[in-house]
Amino acid sequence: MKIPHLKKKPELKSCHNVTWEDNYSWIHQENILEVLKDKNKLNPEVKEYLENENIYADHHLKDTKDLQKTLFDEIKGRIKLDDESLPYKDHTYEYWTKTTTKGNYSIKSRKKIKSSTVEEIWNGDQEKEKLGVEYFGVGDLEVSFNDQYLGYSLDTKGSEYYSIFIRDIKSKEVISPEIKDTSGSITFSLDDNYIFYSKLDDNHRARTIYRHKLGTKTEEDELIFNEKSDAFTVSISLSSDEKYFFISTSDHNTSEQYYFKSDEEKPKPKLIKKRKKGVLYSVNSWDNKFYNHTNENAEDFKVEISNSLENQKWSDFIPPKEEVLVGGCTFLNNWILRSETSNALDKIFVKNIETGIEEELIFSDETVTVPGVSLMQRDKNTDTVYLSYSSPKTPSRVYKYNLQTKEKILVKEQEIPSGHNPDDYMVERIEYKSHDGRLVPLTITRHKNTKLDGSANLLLYGYGSYGSSMNPIFSSTRLSLINRDIIWATAHIRGGMEKGMKWWKEGKLLNKKNTFEDYIYAAKYLIENKYTSQKKIIGMGGSAGGLLMGAVVNSAPELFLGIIMAVPFVDSLTTNLDHSLPLTIGEFDEFGNAKDIKEHFDYIYSYAPYNNIKKMDYPHILITTSLSDNRVLFDEPAKFTAKLRDYKTDNNLLLLKTEMNAGHGGKSGRDGAIEEIAVDYAFALKISNKI
Fold first, then answer.
1. Are strands 345-352 and 358-360 parallel, antiparallel or unpaired?
2. Is the CB of residue 626 less than 8 Å from the CB of residue 567?
């Protein structure tokens, strides 16, 4: 099979007196945001290259076709296809979603309280069929407070430009014109005469909040808020007591909030606290008091309380704790629930408002779990909530829990139709030393029969950006590898918030290389302790986790058998230098500003995967991307693949698969998602000689 080659058109680039050659920069089109909306605008030469890479990848994976089918059936066989969520009780109706055996998309249903008549108000498969589209992304499904209208937003390209529609539930008539180019979120006013939504600008940034009166033309929509900074994006939400709307505007590092009363005829947002660089805050309203979840003078957050926003006097309600991430509050009439995270483990606490006593809710004897809490109803005058937990070996269990009596009733258990015995699996949480002595949490899941003598293959998963923590959840899909003697390890590396804000700060900006070193040292620990051996590890990460994979494979290729990178952020220097791209400016506090700050340029240039490809042997590599992805443009992995083909000195597989009808999240629909996982896992099993 002929190896695809992308034509070289050398271009010299320079910044801060540094000059470098880029042979493939020509594939980036000036009208790239238009291409995301309309793939027919893609350069035909680039399209041909992507299609040739797809043919090449399919050729080298053709011996896994039967395995892919087996994996697909296995993974789907672990999903209860005809499933229902637990109901949420509104004033008049109970609402829930369900999936069916044949459908790929969810159905939203309701019934009047104390009635048995079920009404289907949304059927994703039917809606997709009506539109006749290949990609079908649902952004939001919101029912008005009077239960008459359904607001929904759709993305039919994968480019995350959502159109909003408002439908009368009874007549099924669309009562307002399509609202285009929104972020997808829908917020109804309490009187149900309006919706609030955020509009995307020319650079795909949500910087304005509009109010749309139902039944009127979109040209008449009223601008409520306009964010001036290119780096900030906006959203709107209703307070817990439904007395206020809060407009939040933020980047990853700094936030600011405005409020107006929910019954204001002409909303005029008022500032709560002026933004301060590095300060995040989020105010909520409950029982005539205001609660502020903030990191101001509290690195790992605290919760403050004030009786007024006009005359603010904040005092600590939940004080800060060292390297313990304090979460926000959920309110009931008699209770306040909140979360904490430390050492990559979450905890749930409940406070009795009357007595002031707070206690941790513990409902499993497993040491590595993911607990959760959610409300059962809109009426806050209740002692009962849904409590849930799962672990890497235990499927999700949900209980109806009475906070007063502490009575616990199991109401839903994640069913694995093909069968699952948690006792067949071993879960370990260890901490290993990184390059600078920092202890990094590592969660390891394996089959009890897998030998720990260095003979096993191991998949090492990592992310480490934006403060996103990798929770040790149950994943039925991973069992397809674990059951075949591939150990699954998740490294809770710096750049996430598994150990608080400091953990994030130590893995971003001029500390970004800590993320990569933490991951490499995880691999070394696993080798030294006989979980696996050199060249038996498969690295896996997506998006910013793809940046991690690219940096790591350039730095320590000898450790790995293979690398799987999805929608990878691998041309990070080029993207950082282009301030017109959707995410670049908003991420200066995450990755830096290479264009304006030489120190940032030098640092990013020293690790950016595309710029640091070397003439050496690389492991097997599978790269997947999507044509309509606006977060990580397809040209990043395409350029990375083309350059890597020029430089690598081995005969290992290098495969690029581009989904031509999808966005950052891959294919839409249940089957589409499973198909993509099956390809990744088939690649892992192929290079591990487990076909």
1. antiparallel
2. yes
